[in-house]
Amino acid sequence: MRAAPRVALPVTGVRLSLWRAVSVYRVAGLAVCLYLIVQWQRLYDRPGVGLGVGVAMAVTTGTVATLAWAGQAHRWSVVGVDVVLTAALTLATIPVQTDAQQHGGMVTLTTIWAAGPTIEAAFLGGPLAGLLAGGCQYCAAYVVRAGYSGETLYSGVLLAVVGVVVGTLVTYAVRAEDDLRTVAAERAALAERERLARSIHDGVLQVLGLVHRAGRDEGGRWGALADAAAEQEAALRGLISSRPPPAQDAAVRDLAADLRALRSTTVTVSVPADPVPVDGPQGREIVAAVRAALHNVAAHAGESARVWLLLETVADEVRVTVRDDGVGFAPTRLAQAAADGRMGVSRSIRGRIEELGGRCTISSSPGDGTEIEMAVPLR
Asked: Residue ranges of the Histidine kinase/HSP90-like ATPase domain (predicted)?
């Protein structure tokens, strides 16, 4: 016979601990109130009503404590009913006590127990909710005293302070717990990524490397397979070595990590060891320009051309240099291509960089390869 599935708690962690703590407070406050009700029975105007109020307080406390301990009390329906019931039980002091007791300094029937809903509202809605719930209890005490007194002011100030302080502390505590949970999840994801990286390195990358070396030695059709294996090996290495930026920093990119991911068997990448943060859209355009430059090398520099990619930070700008040892071209070729309507380099590389407020210098000569230097001011 299968066991029934366990129902997940609406609240966990620090919220659950705080709710359980306030339930303990309510029980302790109830004990004080019941002791006073029993102790002063013979002095009350209507002692039977006083005992009834004590029973109602016990039922309310037991219900709220049970829900709180099970993680089911973090709802406005529960807290709202508790606030109303507590205020009503406080007002029940009027028929129980004599006029002299109400105005002579005797505490209300609910006394310290009445602070419970204020704390609960602060748990659920923060400082403002705690302040409003405390104000509700203060109004009930004000009616019992039939007006203002130093004691009601004292109680009201304490309730306001409790509501605001508890609400503020709970807000920060929950936020800190959420941040800690996020960090723990990121660490777990990073550990899993590193585990997969080790597995890929020991398996897939080794096989791709073997295929690359064997195919290169065989030549012919196997040479093309070797090149494809080398490209996939480089892509996998870039994938497992790059680390995505945290979600809260999505508007900022690490340009060094982005360029490092472009490393392959024919592309040597040299970047600073420390991150090079740039504006998100700015970084995307720089990487797109670099990819366009690498595409041009693959398409026009020759099959055996190698590429060196260099990233530097100079003063308030970043500089990216793409240099290859390919066949090169005549200095007038770019101008001729633009005149003929072939705008590949002009738009995909120089256009992107200049739109960022930077500058792009392209130098080449036949047989000496090509060098493209892109400089972009940091935002």
From this structure: 286-378
